[in-house]
Amino acid sequence: MNLFAYFHDKIAAEIAALGFALDTSRMSVEPPRDPAHGDVSANAAMVLAKGAGMKPRDFAEKLRPRLAKLDHVTAAEVAGPGFINLRLDNEFWYARLAEILRVGPAYGDSTAGQGRTVNVEYVSANPTGPMHVGHGRGAVVGDALAALLHKTGHAVTREYYVNDAGAQVDALARSVYLRYRQALGETVGEIPEGLYLGEYLIDTGATLAQRDGKKWLGKPESEWLAPVREFAIEEMLTLIRGDLERLGIEFDVFASERKLVKAGAIEHAIAELEKQGLIYVGTLEPPKGMLPDDWEARPQTLFRSTAFGDDVDRPIKKVDGSWTYFAADIAYHWDKYKRGFADLIDVWGADHGGYVKRMQAVVKALTQGKAALDVKLCQLVNLSDGGQPVRMSKRAGNFVMLRDVIERVGKDVVRFVMLTRRNDQTLDFDFAKVVEQSKDNPVFYVQYAHARARSVMRLAAQHFGADELTPTALAHGPLNLLADADEIALVRHLAQWPRTVEGAAQMHEPHRIAFYLQEIAASFHALWNKGNADAGLRFVVEGKRDLTRARLALVQAVAFVIASGLKVIGVTPAEELR
RNA sequence: GCGCCCAUAGCUCAGAGGAUUAGAGCAGCCGCCUUCUAAGCGGCAGGUCGUUGGUUCGAGUCCAACUGGGCGCGCCA
């Protein structure tokens, strides 16, 4: 259970019992910043005193005795401008420990989402080549966020938008055709401007040659473009699917832009906007200060996104009359809404930052404000190897492929490291550092804590029967023998897991999970080391079976919470490290 | 020029509008292995939370302006 939500309800009930009909939704119940102030801190008095016609401290004093009588509360104190701080007895923490053992890695699961439908769209890399490291960051952030929302009781759909229409896939088809001719013995020379240079396309061209033989040689583009394009997209998606599989990511939906276009979804969406008077033909002001060389004023078909907070209205048609990418994205987001999603989340690269406002504007317009779109922008990943920057150039086609990174450091390392920074901070990824086995490496540090916990349990198995070490047996053990202040402190910390999960889910910030796990690992390593200094504080104490069982309960709970967190991140907990 | 993101210890970064004392890690200094993994732990030292205003009982957190950095800026996706 989220103990802070629990006490929020308790406190709200006591306020009601005092005869006040006040809105307690603004009241926060949190851990105090300074643990010396207690276990639970409520700002009720400051938020509610005005409504009750009282001074905050007077209100707090009136409420205090009632809270002091709540179960497991040993003290209620009024502090500062009117905080009410509660201290809880050890029994409460033993109950939390037993709870963790009872539910195992499902600890932290919550119904906060109330089954709300959420669509998390991430990766959505163009089907023009394998995934690179930047895609990897978005992939991990999106996937962990989806897992987090699932854990908090949302109905989550993981979705990948395939940009299989438009100029890029035409360029892909031409690039593959070139490699196809090459595979059949032609000399193609320099790859022309605008085509893809990636060496992976050599294989694709060869595969096409193998499948179709000389069928397309010497034919006009109008004949081969469509079939080659279809073939190439499928090949690229196979590559991408392979990359995702290596990362352990599985999508529920691959949404095809081409299918949407074919079904006339763009026309429908634009017609809807037109009905609302949000489409017009006009001429935009040139961007100030940075004028494109070939700029000339011309009338365009525009979406009035300024009506919803955007800076300028946005074109939905190109000069040749075809739809812009934005127009397709309008249709796509409306489609998501019509499929029943009230909450939309897009995970994009930071270079798409300029599109956030217009997309949110569209979602507002098409759903009459009933759907919310949150866009998580992921900053760059700076690759280095032992401190030496790894330079990438898309132009030269030598960008570092995600699969190579996974092959070198492993899926678990990639996933964890991608969450060691907020999504909107640039991330340094050093090949040498992330596989280092030291406390400087957060992945290792957390894995080591889990492995240590498992190691203790294995050792304990030599002294106890298997039936004595099951989580249930441990939960029913003499937990009250846990008396060391650091042991209780660790239980407290573990008991914050549900709140951490709910907070991270609500704020759409999966990195918080990685940070929390590092804290738990640190607490556990510290406790472990107290056993080095004082043998009486070791987890397994010769001749003290009851005390040992109580401590094993704590050790098992640590393992469960770390496993619970790693599951959100998509990392396999290590049983041992070699 | 405009928009978005960012600015917290020497470095890399956390920080849900709250309390006399803003936290980690690294680097620095001093310590801890006869041991369940020392692949670890403890301690010391280190801060005008970019600047200036504003809102509030209260601001690292919210608002505005400014300074500095990243990303982007009509018919690419």
Which helices and strands, and how do they pair?
Elements (H helix, E strand, L loop, with lengths): L2 H15 L11 E2 L9 E3 L1 H9 L3 H13 L4 E7 L3 E6 L1 H14 L13 E5 L11 H19 L3 E8 L4 H17 L16 H13 L8 H27 L5 E4 H6 L2 H11 L3 E4 L17 E4 L10 E2 L9 H14 L4 E7 L6 H12 L4 E7 L2 E5 L2 E2 L12 H8 L1 H7 L9 E4 H4 L7 H19 L10 H5 L9 H11 L1 H11 L3 H23 L11 H25 L9
Parallel strand pairs: 5-6, 5-11, 6-7, 11-12, 13-15
Antiparallel strand pairs: 1-2, 2-4, 3-4, 8-9, 9-10, 13-14
The chain binds one RNA strand of 77 nucleotides through strand 10, helix 11, helix 16, helix 19 and helix 20.
Task: Describe the protein in words.
- The model has no long low-confidence stretch (mean pLDDT 89).
- The protein is an alpha/beta fold and 578 residues long.
- 49% of the residues lie in helices and 12% in strands.
- The protein has a five-stranded parallel beta sheet, with helices on both faces. A four-stranded antiparallel beta sheet has the order 1-2-4-3.
- It binds one RNA strand of 77 nucleotides through strand 10, helix 11, helix 16, helix 19 and helix 20.
According to CATH, the homologous superfamily of the domain at 107-111 and 437-569 is Isoleucyl-tRNA Synthetase, Domain 1
* Residue runs with pLDDT of under 50 for 5 or more positions: none
How many separate helices? 21
Reading off the top of the CATH hierarchy, the class of the domain at 107-111 and 437-569 is best stated as: Mainly Alpha
N/C terminus separation: 36 Å
Strand content: 5-15%
| Average predicted local confidence, pLDDT | 89
Strand order of the largest sheet: 7-6-5-11-12
User: In the CATH scheme, what's the topology name of the domain at 107-111 and 437-569?
Assistant: Isoleucyl-tRNA Synthetase, Domain 1
Secondary-structure content class: alpha/beta
Kindly provide the radius of gyration, computed on alpha-carbon positions and rounded to a whole number of angstroms: 29 Å
Largest sheet: 5 strands, parallel
**What is the helix fraction of residues, given as a range?**
40-55%
Count of DSSP strands: 15
